Amino acid sequence: MLCIRNGNIVDGVSKSPYVADILIENNKITEIRANISLDTVTTLDATGKWVIPGLIDVHCHLREPGFEYKEDILSGMRSAAAGGFTTIACMANTNPVIDNAPMVEFVKNKALSYGLIRVFPIAAVTKGLLGQELTDMAELKEAGAIAVSDDGKPIMNSSIMKAALEYSGGLDLLVISHCEDIALSFEGVMNEGEMSTKLGLKGINRASEEIMVARDILLSEVTGTRIHIAHISTRGSVELVRQAKLKGIKVTCETAPHYFSADERMVDGYDTNAKVNPPLRTESDVLAVIDGLLDGTIDIIATDHAPHHRDEKDVEFAIAANGFSGFELAFSLACTSLFKANHVSLGRIVELMSAAPARILGIQGGSIAKGSRADIAVVDPDKEFIVDSDKFYSKGKNTPFHGRLLNGEILHTISAGKIVYSNGKIV
Question: Which of 412, 362, 427 lies closest to 52 in space, CA to CA?
Answer without folding.
Answer: 412
